[in-house]
Amino acid sequence: MLELRSVTAGYDRAAPVMRGVDLTIAAGASVGLLGPSGCGKSTLARVAALLHRPDAGQVVIDGQPARGWRHRAPREQRTAFGVVFQQPRLSADPRLTLTDLIAEPLRAVGRAPEAAAVVPALAARVGLGKDLIGRRPHEVSDGQLQRACLARALVLRPRWLICDEMTAMLDASTTASLVHVVEEYRAEHGAGLLAVGHDRVLLERWCDGTTHWDDLTGGL
Ligand SMILES: Nc1ncnc2c1ncn2[C@@H]1O[C@H](COP(=O)(O)OP(=O)(O)OP(=O)(O)O)[C@@H](O)[C@H]1O
């Protein structure tokens, strides 16, 4: 279970983006979070993935309270999450080939030697052929780069996926393909999902349930 308990967070303690927010996702379940632009969905997603330290409240991962944030989070908690953001170019090192980009988390945890066995199959799974995986970000489309970012999020086999507007800048067929990859992974590994977005139709089709920002925050 992934729990946000009474989370207050933002960028200015005097004026937080959210106050006292509770959100629970059962193990293996998926929740879609809807809300208007700028309300705080990405901030909440980053708190849930241990990437943004809340001012107050707790994040509890499978019964264990988060013991740190960002690089200070213990490795077993940090690697429980795979995160995909809206803009792949902001989260991709332009110097890396797609192969190296997908392998980045393995290198970060000292498991680089596994990359040769794991990355080609994962790249194929997200729809990246051999012709593409040797290219660098500026040599591929946004959709192709987002496919690599999804593969990177899956490479450590996380128990939780946080998809923050993952498909917002993609066409319908790439969107369908990436959602399919996420659902196939979740079916195989029992991973839970928080999918953030503003496309109600997509999130209602994709997730077990959806919640609106106003319901989390009481419209405050
Ligand atoms: N790094 C930051 N420093 C200061 N304020 C920020 C920062 N990031 C976001 N904000 C502000 O926090 C509020 C919530 O932003 P957030 O990105 O969480 O919203 P969102 O619901 O995800 O929006 P969108 O749907 O447009 O992506 C906004 O008012 C935004 O301007």
UniProtKB/TrEMBL annotation:
SMART domains with a match to the protein in the record: AAA (SM00382)
Membrane-spanning ranges: none
Domain of life per record: Bacteria
Keywords (A to Z) from UniProt: ATP-binding, Nucleotide-binding, Transport
Residue ranges constituting the ABC transporter domain according to the UniProt record: 2-220
UniProt keyword Cytoplasm, yes or no: no
SUPFAM superfamilies documented for this protein: P-loop containing nucleoside triphosphate hydrolases
Residues in the signal sequence: none
Cross-referenced InterPro entries: AAA+_ATPase (IPR003593), ABC_transp_ATP-bind (IPR050319), ABC_transporter-like_ATP-bd (IPR003439), P-loop_NTPase (IPR027417)
Name recorded for this polypeptide: ABC transporter
